[in-house]
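Running log. JK asked me to keep both predictions on one page so they can be read side by side. First protein, sequence followed by its tokens:
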Amino acid sequence: MNEVYRVPVLEGDRICADAALSLTALAFRIPVEEMTRRERIRLRACRARWSAMYLAHVSFGWPLERVAHAFGLNRATASTACRWAEDERDRADYDHLMEGLELALKRLLDLPRVDLAPEIVKGYR
């Protein structure tokens, strides 16, 4: 039996993790696809993914296990990622970038939700 065990993840958690990945990918100029590959990735992409995991951890207040599950990884990886990112925050440039990403992510999630399929208006579908 070679099936990979996957913990069920709430759709909302996956969407939030995707938002953190997308913002981080934009900030570091690394495609999300490169950051989320299952095979070995280059160091820049790995550190960008770790930054996204840390961003989710601090922005959403998620425990490491929830971060790991939302990103499809294990808790040890999430712990390593957050420990590395926390150490990197000693660098002024990285700290400034992460502060901006945290603010952007929080503002994005504070926006009102808009129904893309409101009730059918008479005469329209």
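And the second, directly underneath as requested:
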Amino acid sequence: MNPYLFTSHRLGFRTWQPFDLDDFTAINADQEVMRFFQKPLSREETQAMMDRMQRMFEERGFCYFAVNLLETKELIGTIGLGWKTFEADFTPCVDIGWRISKKWWNKGLTTEGAIACLEFAKQKGIREVLSMASIGNTASIQVMKKIGMSHWKDFDHSELQNFPDIQRCSLYRISL
């Protein structure tokens, strides 16, 4: 049985499974991967995130998916769609985001996966997708540009008030 909801050339996108916990915990615990987030996540916090993603998928039909490299079935991280409701003049909104293991950086996988997720969003009838990243996160901003998103504005993220180094974010959007 095919475990994937959809695939790209090199990647398979699926819902989260209990066997993902160890690998995803390792990714979420990596200081460099988590540089533009509030903090690295513990095993318990990673499990809670996976649970939230499962609920989001059940409720909305999308989430930040578990992503495997098709060739090896290795979990490389997460790429997908989220539902953002934090306080801002552009929420609620559908967001595209990613977090992948350092091992897979600079190989075009995030861009490839994000393009596949935009196509999935289009098939789901989603008309606009936003993406946000701390203004210092040039790698993620570069992916946003590569997948055809346009800079909309910069803003102070309401959930990052206690994290001034990452609070100022760039917001990108694309119409589907």
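Observation for JK regarding the second prediction: Residues 36 and 122 are 28 Å apart (CA to CA).
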